[in-house]
Write a structure and sequence with these properties.
By secondary structure, this protein is an alpha/beta fold. The chain contains 13 helices and 5 strands. Helix content is about 55%, strand content about 5%.
Length: about 260
């Protein structure tokens, strides 16, 4: 991105002297360094929280803007009395009609920070396929290592890398961006899923709401969990344990799962 800024007076003189002295190679380099220093001084976490509570912004974009891991931003939100909009506000009870899915950043984050990653691994053995975009594969590797370290998973999930199947950009992505501020990774996910005709799995309530409103196929991660339960891949004691792990992420649970010992 190229931005033109008029700099005059004493500021211009100082910048030129800094270049003359060899402190910077050019005025552009000096301005870029000044902007970096400004961003370092700003409380980006506080600003990102303000943006999340006052605008239609995805959680992953909030983390992207703050330049912090999602776990750090979620902890900061909770400390300031804000619940991240992950999970389901009510029971959607969606019937899962596909076996191939593209996981967006929120679904990947929730899966690897709960016991759902094992559930997805079991579904893989039943013929399900889970994808994400190449730009997110490094994040998957880091979350996978973290899950193994915390002993949250007994079996690794084979998430495949999905590139766009059609080179043209989908007009649906522009429509989504008019209604919701999303991260570059989320934009990549939308483009790949739409070009390949594969539904998205998202744990971000705001993202699902917008995608559904314009007819883009999307499932909640909890709908995939229900499918595993229906297939007999999760017994009752495991179900309770998995729900408790989701509460620790934390996510918004539908009414029947707020008390995991019943229903």
């Amino acid at each position: 991105m190229v931005v033109s800024v008029d700099i005059t007076g004493i500021l211009e003189e100082r910048l030129r002297r800094l270049v003359d002295l060899g402190i910077y190679a050019s005025i552009s380099e000096a301005v870029r360094d000044a902007l970096r220093r400004l961003m370092d001084e700003l409380d980006l976490k506080r600003i990102s929280l303000q943006m999340y509570t006052s605008k239609e912004v995805s959680l992953h974009y909030t983390c992207h803007f703050a330049g912090s891991p999602c776990r750090t931003i979620i902890d900061y939100m909770l400390k300031n009395g804000v619940m991240p909009l992950l999970g389901e506000t009510s029971s959607e009870q969606e019937e899962v009609a596909h076996t191939r899915f593209v996981l967006d950043p929120s679904a990947i984050f929730v899966s690897y920070n709960s016991l759902l990653v094992d559930v997805l691994s079991r579904l893989e053995r039943e013929g399900f396929e889970f994808y994400t975009v190449p730009s997110l594969m490094k994040q998957v590797e880091l979350l996978e290592a973290y899950a193994v370290y915390r002993r949250l998973t007994a079996s690794l999930l084979n998430i495949r890398s999905l590139t766009r199947c059609v080179s043209t950009r989908s007009p649906h992505v522009s429509e989504v961006k008019k209604r919701l501020i999303i991260s570059p990774h989320e934009e990549d996910t939308l483009e790949a899923a739409l070009s390949c005709g594969i539904p998205i799995v998202s744990s971000d309530i705001r993202i699902r709401r917008v995608l559904k409103s314009i007819g883009i196929p999307v499932y909640s991660l909890l709908s995939i969990f229900r499918e595993a339960i229906e297939r007999g891949l999760v017994d009752e004691s495991e179900r309770v344990e998995i729900i408790l792990s989701l509460r620790g992420v934390p996510i918004v649970l539908p009414p029947e799962w707020k008390h995991p010992s019943t229903g």
